[in-house]
Amino acid sequence: MNERQQGRAGSVGSTDVSISRYLSRGWQILQQDLALWVLASILYSAVLGVVSTTGIGAAIVLGPLEVGWYAVILKRLRTGALDLDEIARGFHRFVPAFLAGVAVLAFAFLGFAFFILPGIVVLALYLFVWPILLDEDVDFWSAMERSRRTALRHWPQWCLFVVVIGLIHFAGLLFCGVGLLVTLPWTKIAVALAYEEHFRAAPSPASPPQ
Fold it and tell me: How crowded is residue 149: how many other Cβ atoms within 10 Å of its Cβ?
């Protein structure tokens, strides 16, 4: 197997949650194309920065951008090719991605309003909405429910994963925010690796194996 195609190797189909494995393997993948991943982070941040000036613009494009991020990452994991043009695929699923983005933001806001912990749980349960929307021809609520049902099986571990991701991003902020250009793709690659293990190995009833 090609070194650039080992993102899914070794543990596909396992039922455990190994945060250290996802992060360590994600870091290896990040290092192989660091300049391109940083460029992807710059593009993502630039788009969010521009649309944020309109007030609600960020909420409109957040979902499609997230789906686009995972289109880039999953193509890299599955084929070995890092193609930034894949970001546009998120806008091919604009309506469900937009609605999922608004719903997740609203649920997370309400959760964090109640002593933070519920917000972490919300983010953990809906951690995989974006790659599900990319891979499956489902509406936004079906994608959210699929993510929630699967994540519930190991919800404490996924909550810890969300906390670790937050701490990694906080560390990136300490470097004048520039560190986020590295931590952003790193953590998303780690989430994509977890998705490949826990979702791709066990298709939903609506999406039977080929």
Answer: 11
Contact 114, 182 (CB under 8 A): no
Cα 30 vs. chain centroid, distance in angstroms?
Answer: 15
pLDDT of residue 51: 81
CA dihedral 199, 202, 204, 208 (to 10 degrees): 130
Beta carbons within 10 angstroms of residue 178's beta carbon: 12
pLDDT at residue 30, rounded to an integer: 97
DSSP 207: S
Contacts for 183 with CB less than 8 Å, ≥ 6 apart: 168, 169, 171, 172
- What are the extents of the domains in the chain? 20-198
- Report pTM: 0.85
Q: pLDDT per residue over 21-60, tens digit each? A: 999 999 999 999 999 999 999 998 888 888 877 667 778 8
